[in-house]
Each structure stands twice: as structure tokens, then as C-alpha cells.
Amino acid sequence: MIRLVRRAIAGLAAAALLLLGSAGASASGLPAWEIPTATHTLDNGLTVVVSEDDGSPTFGIAVVYKVGFRLEPRGRTGFAHLFEHMMFQGTPKAPKGVFQRVIEGGGGIDNGSTRSDYTNYIASAPVSSLEAILWLEADRMRHLDFSPENLANQQEVVKEEVRVNVKNRPYGLFFWTDLVALAFEKWENAHDGYGSFEDLDAAKIEDVESFHRTYYSPGNAVVAIAGDVDPKQVFALCEKYFGSIPARELPQRPDLSEKLHTGERKLVQSDDFARVPGLAVGWKMPEPSSPDYDALALLGELLLNGEASRFYQRFVKEEATLLQVVGGVHWPLGNALTNGGPTLLIVFALYKPNTTAEAAVAAMDDEIARIAAGEITREELDRTRTKLLADHYSGLEPLISRANLLGIRQALTGDAATINHVPSRIAAVTLEDLRRVAAEYLVADNRAMIDRRPAAAPAAAAGE
Fold first, then answer.
1. Which of 23, 118, 330, 356 is the most exposed place for a label (fewest CB within 10 A)?
2. CA distance 242 to 9
3. 36-242 matches 265-454 in fold
4. Which of 299, 266, 268, 273 is CA-nearest to residue 285?
């Protein structure tokens, strides 16, 4: 029943957005899905967030550590990602494989990922598994099996992942790894989060132990749980299993701030595996705390989110100059809500060989200039708002995803309940905001672009 009511409310909220005018729009009076949040901090600094939902006898859990690509040590590119793999190699008390057997044996799922500002470990299971999973998470927060064998094994696993996802596939994620290297000044923001083979091979056991000691402390972590659980019970269980882990000094966060560009940056690359040329374009975004951030995030949705977006409709459907076009704010690492620092509004497109990257970008500039000049209607803004809010609610429906976003928002902002501010933030963006940010940020001087061209085909042998 709760789930049906929640879906009805979400539908009403989406429909109500269609009726909003752009000027002075607000979320007051809008029906909305209010996610309950209860927060408790242990003496050792661990923050626990609980969102109760009795729709099914299950729960989702996310353990979010405040370390990602931006904070890994210099000379150890890819180390945060490598360490994510190490977290699944077992502990002295729970050897390799125990974690997965406990979760999957009860019908649950688990996973982990590394992003710019955090590393997260997520799982979903029946509520009967809650205490066992909390014990396992506390156990690997306390200590890992720091063996040379495990490290060597995972170094090879990560290198194979780099081969599969970067080195030996068309385009090789250049729209992320290469584009940020071109766009950003500071090493923390610009370096390759997947890591070089040289840096991965150089990692030692003492590096792993130091990384765990520095970044995997209770005060640098959030445990978020959503599902058929009682907050007080969860807080007591977290106190029982995590409370005895010693507090440690928190790592100092470097200054990650960056200024906007003062001139366009361009790069041409060759791709041995691509059959059609690709294009990556990135405009520098202001910090998430900027009043322009939400407007740019919504503008990115309007330009790029789905087949109804402006770029898709014009360049794929009408003019047929592009084969595909995707992107958004902080894409492909997440979205505007899961970013905690400098980022880009990214476009990745495949363009037809009978055009050029320069022509494709010029056409994008023309579409952006139309918005800056006021060629955008209230109805188009409202449709984009509705789509954005619908996507937000859809993403919160699975308990594992809800716990994950709660944990991420708590880690990034110190307040998990900010997920409930999304409707009002969307409603507050006006037509004038979109015009202004299009004219100020989506300009050539603030842009980095990479033209990724297929390598020349080998010449035919004589006589063929």
C-alpha cells in the first residue's frame, strides 16, 4: 500500500510540474515524495543514516567512504579503484568469498564502485541478513587481508579491466579520462582515475595498509540503510559492530577549486578500433554550491537527456549529422547530485564521416545560442522539469539505490535529507536562468573538445 501511494504522489508531482509557470515557480504546495531520514553519529565519527520503508521485508545498504579519484596519492593513479577491489579480498576473520556467500546465499546482491569524490559499497538483502551484513562491513572497515598474493591478483584484475574498457575498445572512455585531462588544471581533477599500468604495478602492501588506515576510518565513512528497518534498532546494531573501531585523524582535503577557461582547448586523437569518428565536448561547471549549478544541470537535461532532447532531435533525427549524442553534468561518472567538486557538462557524439567535428560543434553552438537568445518556451522547460523529477523518483524506488544516494548525499553535503530538496531545486529554475547560464558558461572560451578519428585503414598489399 505504501508503495502504491508513493507512486501516486510521484505521478501527481510530475503532473503538477507541467502546470507550473517558469517565473517564481516553487515546490511549495506541490505533492512530493518525502523520503524519511534519521541520522546518528557514533563517538568514533561514523555517520549512520536510516530511511524506513515497510513496503517489503528487505533493505538496501550503502557504505560510502569519502575518498575517490581526486584524493588518491600522487604517483598512484588508479589506487582508489584498486583499493575498491581489495575490499572484496577478505579479512583475517572473514576470508575471501565469505562476504559474497552471506549476501548472495540469502538472495541478496552486492557491488562496489569508485567515483571522483567517494567509493561506495552497496548491497540489498532480506532484513534477516541485516545484522550479519553489518558485522561483515564493520569487519572489513577494521582490517583487511593485506597479503602480497591478494594485491598481485587484484593488480592484474584492474589492469585487465583497463584493457577491456579503455585500451582495447572503440573510443576507450576518452570522453571521460582524456577530456578531464584536457579540461582541468589541477592533478587531482585531471588525472586518469583508472590509472596507468606503471602506477598500478608500483603499489606495495604498505601503500594498501596506509590507504586503509588513512581513508577507511569510521569518521570518513557513512553507513546508509533504506528498507523495512527500525532506525533505533539500526543505530544500536551499528554501535554494537562499528562502535569499537578506533577513531583516526581525518585526511586533509586539498583545494580542488578551478577557474573557468579563458580559451578553447582542442585535441585530435586517433583510434585503432573506432569505425566512425567520435567527439567529446566539455564545458567547465561552477561548484555545486553555485546558484548557477542547478540551472546548468537542468539545461544539460534539456539538451541531452533522451530522444526528446534538443541535440538528439536536431542532430540525429532532423539533420542526421550525428549517429548518437549523449551526456550531461558529471557524465558518465554520475549526475549533478553525485558530484562534490569541479566537473564538466559533457557531450559525447558519434558524427558521420561526411561532416566534421568543427561543424558538429558549430551546430551545437547555434542551438545553445538560440536558448541564450530566448528561443525556449515555458512548456519546454516544464517538460524538462517533469522528466528530471520522474527520473529522480524512479531512481529512488529500488531500496539499494535509495540507500546509495542517501549515503552519497550525506558524504558530500553532510545532510542526506537534501535528496528531498530536488523538487524545489528543479522548480526554482526559470527561463531567464537557462538563458543566462547558456550565455555565460556554454561558450567556446570555456570549452574543451576532443576529435577522436578512426585510424587510417592499412594499405592493401600490391596485387590485391
1. 23
2. 37
3. yes
4. 299
Q: Which of 17-26, 122-131, 224-233, 294-303 has the lowest mean pLDDT?
A: 17-26
Determine if the pTM surpasses 0.90: yes
Query: Do residues 129 and 108 lie in contact, with contact meaning Cβ atoms separated by under 8 Å?
Result: yes
* Residue 383, C-beta contacts closer than 8 angstroms, at least 6 positions apart: 18, 308
DSSP state, 218? G
Q: Per CATH, the architecture of 36-242 is what? A: 2-Layer Sandwich (3.30)
> For residue 174, what is the DSSP state?
T
Are 376 and 431 in contact by the 8 Å Cβ rule? The answer is yes
Distance CA 338, CA 431 (A): 25
| CA–CA gap between residue 396 and residue 380 (Å, rounded) | 25
Per-residue cell: 268: 585530435
> What are the grid coordinates assigned to 94, written together?
572473514
Round to whole Å and give the CA distance between 449 and 182. 8
CATH of domain 265-454: 3.30.830.10
Residue 419 pairs with which residues in a beta bridge?
A: none
Share of the chain above pLDDT 70, in %: 92
